[in-house]
Design brief:
Low-confidence stretches: 1-10
Distance between the termini: 49 Å
Strand content: under 5%
Mean pLDDT: 82
Radius of gyration: 27 Å
Order of helices and strands: HHEEHHHHHHHHHHHHH
Strand order of the largest sheet: 1-2
Helix content: over 70%
Shape: globular
Largest sheet: 2 strands, antiparallel
Length: 312
Amino acid sequence: MTATTTAPLATTPVRTALRPSNRLRAWATRAPLLPALIFMIVVTQLPFVATVVISFFDWNSLYPKARHFTGVDNYKEVLTDADLRHSVWTTVLLTVTVVLVSLVLGLLLALLLDRRFKGRGVVRTLLIAPFLVVPVAAALLWKHVLYNPEYGLFNGLLHYVGGPQPDWISNTPLLAVEASLVWQWTPFMMLILLAGLQSRDQQQMEAARVDGASDWQIFRYLTLPHLRRYLELGALLGSIYIVQNFDAVFTITSGGLGTANLPYTVYQSFYQAHENGLASAAGVLVVIGSIIIATFALRVVSSLFREEAGRA
């Protein structure tokens, strides 16, 4: 009886003694991450907080002494000004078009690369190459090498077959920007969808073929449902980056001919009109939109990880 009653009392000091050591060990493992966390907060969060504060002021850098607090007037102007509303619509149209076309082309290329053929590694490397090009360099390539009406490749091919010689950027400015972005982002979509294709259950695919299912039936009822999460992930990640795109618009059209998206409008308001408050309000709206899209992207990624963990 004595042994049974004193044993729990003997273990209690040991447990209390272990608690501080466990806490110290936990802090010791997390301490190396603190400098990176502090650096990230200083570099990203503090400037964003300053931007939010400036967005509530009527602040023109040419007249710094005339700045004053205006509340949400800058946000109202962003949402009600005709030019700014047009830039928001252009941003939405540009993003939706580029994401959808890139997803369709990426899916077709992923289905091609999922098959075994001679030289597949070389073809895969060549198809990935556009995504590795610096965005400004890619925009310059499309503007001068392909679109130029005098010595561009497109007009050169049309001249060879006796076709017209259009000015691509002047005639179809938004389409010109969209084409360059589709060329650059299709490999990104292709890689995501190719990873999804290679994660399919091969035994299920073989069983469907044995049962007499055609390639279209396998794609419609097995492959496409399996790729749903990967399609959502590609669309969300692509939207995050394309919403913030500035390089192609600035390089190809300089925001003219109705191609100014919201990031370019922020640039115009800040660097050309010197309206710091208005530019900050527009920038905050862009960040909020990106955060909303990123939240959905993180949920899709976490669901993919849960599915893979469940299969394992």
